[in-house]
Structures are given as structure tokens and as C-alpha cells.
Write a structure and sequence with these properties.
By secondary structure, the protein is an alpha/beta fold. It contains eleven helices and seven strands. Strands 2-1-3-4-5 form a five-stranded parallel sheet. Strand 6 and strand 7 form a beta hairpin.
């Protein structure tokens, strides 16, 4: 009887692990593009999609004000999903508008540009540069399909090591297992995620169709600029002031080239 109980526990644990790792590391299937005959509105239109960085500190309002200060009036449509990895952010583009965290409305507005702020949760959960780059490319290709120019913020500098120290035992083991399997036990670095995306963009011949804004203009070092962060994963109010100014500068440069 005891052997059966132990065997059952082992089997259930095994099933749980398989499901857990499958949900965490499996790639999203390619979604079918939906028809959209919406005509873009007049004036400069900007979309913003991504994770919690999109919804914290009223980023859309901050960016709108920064642009107005520079003499550019715009309409901004934003949609952020706290805790989302790039896989979920891609899937959100195809959710019906009534579904939670759907960002389909951003596509349907047909903005001139769509700022993509994503990847912090990929790096924080150690899913690896290939996972990140794969889903970022799916996001980019979707935006391009609808004639929206992707403006991608390179993976932000954040406290990746400090965040790891705050994880519980299960998350820590999961991340270490992933690095062992995917990277020979070595820790993934933020620069590796950035490099993987740049290589994929170039390989797909999209270098001239995608704008990548280098987050290093905000900060290149989490330790030296902790005054810009509320915690290892997120900027604080001061950080958002600098971040929104950085985004505004990027949009102004694009607007000048139109």
C-alpha cells in the first residue's frame, strides 16, 4: 500500500513538472491574422504594448505630455499585461477586445508606430534569449502585417540578480534547471537577450522596418542607478520621468523623418 502511495506521488509530481515546464517554456503557436479594415485616424497615432512597464506610473499620459512639450500632439493607445512574458504579449494581440489584457484594440486603431516594451519577465524567469527573440519576432511581424511600424525598446537593464535572490525555492530551482538545460548552467545575461533579437531582426531582413531604441540611454547599470528603481524589476517615478523622455526623443526623431 505504501509503495502504491509513493508511486502515485512520484507520478503526480512528474506530471506536474511536465505541465509546469511545458507551460513555461513552450513556444506560442502562430496565430491567424484577423481582418481589419479600420482606417487610421488623422494626426500622429502611437500604440504601446507590453508588460507592467506599460501600465505603471501612467506611462501613456507621461509620454503624451513629453511629446506635447516638444510641440508634437498625438493620440496614444496603450495595453499592458503585468507579469507577462513576450509569449503572452504576442497572444494578447489576438484576444477579443472583451477579454482581459487584450491588445487587439491597439492594432485596430492602426497607429503610425507601436512601442513594444517587453522582455523583463522573460529574463526574470530565465526562459532564455531564443524564447524571447522568437516571440518578439512574432510580435514585430504581426505589427508589420497591419502596416504599423514597430518601435522596440531593447530589453531594459534591471536587477536580474537581485530579483533571483528574492525568489522562492521552487522558482529558484526552476530557473537553475532551465539555465542548466538551455545554457550549460551559466546565467543568461541581458546583453544575450538583446543580441538574439538583433540577430533575428537582421536574419529576417527587417532591420530597416523596425526601430530599436537602446535602453542604455536611460541607464546602463542597475547598481549605479538604483535611485531610478522602485524594486529590482520596475522603475520608480523618477525613473519613469527619464524613461518617458527617452521614448519621446525616439518618437520625435521618427516624426522628423516622416
Amino acid at each position: 500500500m505504501k509503495k502504491k502511495i509513493v508511486l502515485s506521488i512520484v507520478l503526480l509530481s512528474g506530471v506536474f513538472c511536465v505541465i509546469y515546464f511545458w507551460n513555461k517554456y513552450s513556444y506560442a503557436p502562430e496565430e491567424e491574422y484577423f481582418p481589419s479594415d479600420t482606417k487610421p485616424e488623422t494626426g500622429l497615432q502611437i500604440g504601446i504594448i507590453g508588460d507592467s512597464w506599460v501600465v505603471r506610473q501612467n506611462l501613456d499620459s507621461l509620454l503624451e505630455k513629453k511629446l506635447l512639450d516638444k510641440g508634437i500632439q498625438t493620440e496614444i493607445y496603450s495595453s499592458g499585461n503585468p507579469g507577462a512574458k513576450t509569449k503572452r504579449i504576442y497572444e494578447n494581440l489576438f484576444k477579443e477586445n472583451v477579454e482581459e489584457f487584450s491588445s487587439r484594440k491597439v492594432i485596430e486603431k492602426k497607429p503610425d508606430y507601436c512601442i513594444v516594451i517587453a522582455g523583463v519577465n522573460d529574463a526574470a524567469t530565465h526562459v532564455g534569449p531564443d524564447f524571447y527573440a522568437h516571440h518578439m519576432m512574432m510580435i514585430i511581424k504581426t505589427l508589420l502585417h497591419y502596416n504599423i511600424k514597430p518601435v522596440v525598446v531593447s530589453l531594459p537593464e534591471f536587477g536580474i540578480e537581485e530579483n533571483f535572490k528574492n525568489k522562492n525555492i521552487i522558482s529558484s530551482l526552476s530557473n537553475k534547471s532551465a539555465e542548466l538545460f538551455l545554457n550549460g548552467g551559466a546565467e543568461f545575461k541581458i546583453q544575450e537577450y538583446r543580441k538574439a533579437l538583433l540577430e533575428n531582426v537582421k536574419h529576417n531582413g527587417l532591420d530597416k522596418k523596425v526601430v530599436i531604441l537602446n535602453f542604455d540611454e536611460v541607464t546602463v547599470n542597475f547598481d549605479k542607478d538604483r535611485n531610478l528603481y522602485a524594486d529590482p524589476l520596475h522603475l520608480n517615478k523618477q525613473g519613469y520621468q527619464k524613461f518617458s523622455e527617452f521614448l519621446a526623443k525616439g518618437i520625435v526623431n521618427l516624426a522628423d523623418k516622416r
